[in-house]
Amino acid sequence: MFRTAVRSMATSARQSLTIGLIPADGIGREVIPAAREAILAVQSELPQVKFIDLLAGWETFTRTGTALPRETVQALKEDCDCALFGSVSSPSRKVAGYSSPIVALRKELDLYANIRPVSSVSADRTQPPAVDLIVVRENTECLYVKDEKLIHTENGKEARATRLITERASTRIGKIAFELAKARSRKLLTIIHKSNVLSVTDGLFRESVRAVPGLPGIDGRFDDVTIEEQLVDSAVYRLFREPQIFDVMVAPNLYGDIISDAAAALVGSLGVIPSINAGDNFVMGEPVHGSAPDIAGKGIANPVASIRSAALMLRHLGYVSAADKIDKAVDDTLAPAEILTADLGGKHSTTEVTDHIMGLIKKQYN
């Protein structure tokens, strides 16, 4: 399914693979164990695997006063080769001392690219999927720098937020997007922006991405990639009307977040959409869905996004065969539409879906 989803990091010399597990909040504690099982199911194709359980999230904050303990960051930097993050619950109101741990982790580890493949699975494997695209989201800037302030004026309160777009961040996310587009058969990259209104910030993002093919050292590598543009509002409209026109989409942080969540509706559920947060030296898998407090603890959360994220992470690390086996087992579960959780119209539990996928992985080794 996601055979050309991400570039690979060199792995030939690695003798072991230490994976940090951060379930965080809500259904993260139910779906990250499923991802762990998937990795163990393909461990014969991996170096010796070791897991480290780590803490982060709103519940950690309520217990300890910090949402991202320094011990977690230190373990990721010093002991782990990669990580899996579950989901985080964030209050809708301002809480003194609290900030999102996933946003903080992306900055701490310089995970500047959030890569979110969205693809449908058809029962007829001879036909191309109706939806097959990748959203490449810049992960460190835009409004997510969280530079906000509330001002009291004679006319009442004013809330202001600073939006940060830099040439450096826009260029490096552009490089990732071009690499992904080049690796795919259509070789099409669509830049998402709103520079007709935000001519300075979105204008810089657009210009920086477009300039990537002409950078020193590129040497014509992206000459076969077609570049298109879409205003973000038009892109959302066309995404629902004609998703087949998109291949790789690159966007600033906020737009990328919204577009990828919206695209999930085209393939059934947020519960099947994986992602990785990638930098030059570290990668962290993360299902796109949230903590889903309304179903947390009921055993009905969809484990597919988490399992797909584990495969995406392994593929990025260079363990392509292991990732292929996980993805095939998920495809073979989703296509017949017989063993599904409630978000996809089924009636099976998290455990039942996980067990079915694990059984299909094991069959590939027989």
Automatic annotation (TrEMBL):
Transmembrane segments: none
A GO CC term assigned to this protein in UniProt: mitochondrion
Molecular function GO terms recorded: homoisocitrate dehydrogenase activity; isocitrate dehydrogenase (NAD+) activity; magnesium ion binding; NAD binding
Family per similarity comment: Belongs to the isocitrate and isopropylmalate dehydrogenases family.
Name of the protein described by the UniProt record: Homoisocitrate dehydrogenase
Keywords: Magnesium
GO biological process entries: isocitrate metabolic process; lysine biosynthetic process; tricarboxylic acid cycle
Ranges of residues in domain Isopropylmalate dehydrogenase-like: 18-357
